[in-house]
Design a protein that fits this description.
single chain; 185 residues; alpha/beta; Rossmann fold; five-stranded parallel beta sheet; 8 helices; 51% helix; globular
């Protein structure tokens, strides 16, 4: 991967496959796996839904940002929470050490995969529909993505394989962009 960007950061909507693909990808690349939703829960001693229920969705976003800003690792596949892209500060921090991969599943596929929308612990306004949340976040994911993978019709192994292919292309492109060492006399 480019320079010191040894991490692979997965972003996308709930149900896009970040956690399941992340494990498969980490195994295939002999990397470590980090799920930031689990980091949040461990740091708070409660579930994401409990944070939302007790403190509100903005509190979850604030906790998430604080947790993301503390991440200092190399050679990890990092599955972020779906709301990570709301924090410009956290996303820039993560992008300093990794390539960001947007797992883009279409709305119909996401709705079929996410059956616990109301109790999943999402950083969303109480009245916000899944379609509204999707529309709101799509531009954020696109903005931060270095690589986009259409994941609606693929299983986790296929998505992981596509990511590996795309990463190879990124490595080849960055190698050709490196200035050659020349000596002037």
């Amino acid at each position: 991967m480019k320079g010191d960007k040894s991490n692979i950061i997965l972003i996308g909507m709930p149900g896009s496959g970040k956690s399941t693909v992340g494990v498969v990808l980490a195994k295939s690349l002999a990397m470590r796996f980090l799920d930031t939703d689990l980091l949040i829960q461990c740091s708070q001693g409660r579930t994401l839904q409990e944070i939302v229920d007790n403190d509100g969705h903005m509190a979850l976003r604030a906790v998430e940002e604080a947790v993301l800003l503390k991440i200092r690792c190399r050679h990890h596949v990092i599955a972020t929470g779906g709301s990570a892209a709301y924090s410009d500060l956290a996303m820039h921090h993560l992008k300093q050490s990794g390539i960001t991969v947007f797992l883009h599943a279409d709305l119909a596929a996401l709705e079929a995969r996410v059956d616990n929308y109301q109790t999943r612990g999402l950083a969303k306004r109480p009245e916000q529909s899944f379609a509204d949340l999707f529309a709101e976040r799509l531009a954020l994911y696109e903005h931060y993505a270095d690589i986009r993978i259409a994941s609606s019709a693929l299983n986790q192994e296929q998505v992981a394989a596509r990511i590996v292919e795309e990463l190879s292309g990124v490595r080849e492109a960055s190698a050709t962009l490196q200035p050659s060492a020349t000596t002037l006399s």
